[in-house]
Amino acid sequence: QVQLVQSGAEVKKPGASVKVSCKASGYTFTGYYMHWVRQAPGQGLEWMGWINPNSGGTIYAQKFQGRVTMTRDTSLSTAYMELSRLRSDDTAVYYCARYYGSFDYWGQGTLVTVSS
Amino acid sequence: EIVLTQSPGTLSLSPGERATLSCRASQSFASSYLAWYQQKPGQAPRLVIYGASNRATGIPDRFSGSGSGTDFTLTISRLEPEDFAVYYCQQYGTSPPWTFGQGTKVEIK
């Protein structure tokens, strides 16, 4: 069965970077785009961008351009999302989600807390 | 950027009642690219409807989606206890960014 398993919670200081991983199983990793979505505490969902695991090509939401980098390791069937120059308002749960006509499978989420 | 506005913000209903959730877009787009997700506290979102009217795998037939252009609706014909959650609409497949509505909370009255 399809599973997306994300790395564990992180606590970071303002200005630092965080890298979240998303390990896929149960399907051909390179066959489906992987998206990243975040959710601040008590807030709605915010789309961050996607990576094509086959080519490595990416598209980022303008809001995050210059601070976000999405990569993948096809040998590990794992996608990564790195966010730099963290601020307190980056505190959120970060989700990876597989795209197949919509976001049909989601990771369990990774809480990133930014605090001094 | 396409802005999605959901209404109402909160829907207070009893089990067995009908729920009607609205999602209005700031500009028209193909209905093929409208989805609805359900999210319960502490859980990841779950796909309910894609392509405006297609139920995702495992979603019961009391859930239905409709609409086109700028106006879309999610209907839950008879609320079951497990249906009380927050629902988000999303547009995708158009030019980025792929946006979500702000959510409608369906709560027990």
Descriptive notes:
The complex is a heterodimer of chains A (116) and B (109). Chain A has 116 residues and is mainly beta. In chain A, a hairpin with a 5-residue loop joins β4 and β5 (45-51). Chain A starts with a strand and ends with a strand. In chain A, the strands form two sheets. In chain A, strands 2, 4, 5, 6, 9, 10 and 11 form a seven-stranded mixed sheet that branches. Chain A has a four-stranded antiparallel sheet with strand order 1-3-8-7, with no helix packed on it. Chain A is globular. Chain A contains no helices and eleven strands. Chain B is built from no helices and nine strands. Chain B has strands spanning 4-7, 10-13, 19-29, 34-39, 46-50, 54-55, 63-76, 86-91, 104-108. In chain B, the strands form two sheets. A six-stranded mixed sheet of chain B has the order 2-9-8-4-5-6, with no helix packed on it. In chain B, strands 1-3-7 form a three-stranded antiparallel sheet, with no helix packed on it. Chain B is globular, with a radius of gyration of 13 Å. The N and C termini of chain B lie far apart (35 Å). The relative contact order of chain B is 0.33. The mean pLDDT of chain B is 94. Classes of the chains: A mainly beta (116), B mainly beta (109). The A-B interface holds A 35, 37, 44-47, 49, 59, 61-63, 95, 97, 99, 101-104, 106-109 and B 35, 37, 44-47, 50-51, 56-57, 88, 90, 92, 96-103.
Summarize the structure.
With 116 residues, chain A is mainly β. Chain A is 0% helix and 52% strand. The A-B interface holds A 35, 37, 44-47, 49, 59, 61-63, 95, 97, 99, 101-104, 106-109 and B 35, 37, 44-47, 50-51, 56-57, 88, 90, 92, 96-103.
Structural class of chain B: mainly beta
Mean pLDDT of chain B: 94
Order of helices and strands of chain A: EEEEEEEEEEE
- Overall, the morphology of chain B is globular
Specify the number of helices of chain B: 0
Largest interface: A-B, 22 and 21 residues
- The neighbouring-strand order within the major sheet of chain B is 2-9-8-4-5-6
- From the N-terminal CA to the C-terminal CA of chain A, the straight-line distance is 40 Å
Note the beta-strand portion of chain A: over 45%
In quaternary terms, these chains amount to heterodimer
How big a fraction of the residues of chain B is strand? Answer: over 45%
**Mass-distribution shape of chain A:** globular
